[in-house]
Amino acid sequence: MSALRLKIIDNAVADANAWINEVDSRTDWDDKLRSYRLLRQVLHVIRDHLIVDEAAQLGAQLPTLIRGIYFEGWNPSATPVIERKAAGFIDRVQEAFVTDPLGDAENAIWAVIDVLDAHISDGEMKDVKSTFTKKIRALF
């Protein structure tokens, strides 16, 4: 039973935990805080690359709390930030891991993309992926 007895809040928390658990499982980390940071950072790097309409369309398909994480700190007037090289994409993700760098950053990024692929419509993921260069799509 929920402390607040608000099913909508309980469901939002459960959905967010499920996504974080999926990232944690796909990375084999057993560190949910680190998996949360990874999910958050990859979502932000993707979001910042997209034009405003596409960023909003992706956000609309995210669970409630994950959507809040996705839009946290967003400055639409400063986007899109176009990244053309996989190394630049990886570097932007690594910014959240200064004190504990990602060992296999490509696999970590793939884990988040795999979670998105599992939950976001095929059409939307196709639209998102098509905005990136072939070199970055190789991470996906």
Would you spell out the secondary-structure blueprint of this structure?
Elements: H1 7-27, H2 32-49, H3 52-60, H4 64-71, H5 86-94, H6 105-119, H7 122-130, H8 134-137
Helix pairs in contact: 1-2, 1-6, 2-4, 2-5, 2-6, 3-7
Give an overview of the whole structure.
With 140 residues, this protein is mainly α. Helix content is 66%, strand content 0%. The protein has helices spanning 7-27, 32-49, 52-60, 64-71, 86-94, 105-119, 122-130, 134-137. Helix 1 packs across helix 2 and helix 2 crosses helix 5. The radius of gyration is 15 Å and the shape is globular.
Question: Which key terms come to mind for this protein?
Answer:
140 residues, mainly alpha
Oligomeric state, counting identical vs distinct chains: single chain
Radius of gyration: 15 Å
Tally of individual helices: 8
Helix content: 55-70%
* Beta-strand percentage range: under 5%
Give the integer mean of the pLDDT values. Answer: 95
- Main β-sheet description: none
Element string (H = helix, E = strand): HHHHHHHH
